[in-house]
Fold this protein.
Amino acid sequence: MKNAFISLVLFASALVGLPSCMSSGISSAAKLAALSPLDANPAEFRVALFAPTALRLKTGDARLGFGWSESGTLASTKVFDLQIVSGNAAALQSLPPPRLGQQAMMLSLGAREVESVVKFQQTVREAKQAGHNGSGNLSVSLAGGCWSEPFPAEGQPLPLDIWLQASAGSEYLPVIRGVDLRTILKQAGLKSVPQCVNAS
């Protein structure tokens, strides 16, 4: 798809202390708020997406966004494509099993995207060192994808769960749990996910 069909902000975490607002539990929200994307190694970010089995994604259909806003100005956000990581069964073993009708996908940044994130982090560091105050955020969005089957009739829930691992070996933090994909689609003014062409 040429245009994003969903704008799903999964969490906001601070570059300089901005609290996150999530419904993933008090403990998890506190841990998410404590994350510092400015200091993190972007090569180690992992997003575990538990989505309906009929949803198909390719590189770029899910994106990681880094935002920075100096006090009193509009936020500047850079968005980077996430890619699907194959052979991730072992990495997902620490998570609860997917719900009935869900598939589990692991996402990460590719090498070029990691380089771009590092440059963005350095730009923000230089701004802070120059005395510019501001706040930042980290977000994940779905910007594409297709549905490999006839889209289910209204009333059938389509649960979506998102987990984040900020560094290798750290725990996966639940970002959202049991959100109905239909609700997200309605917020975007859509009734369904576009059908895949030559779906397999």
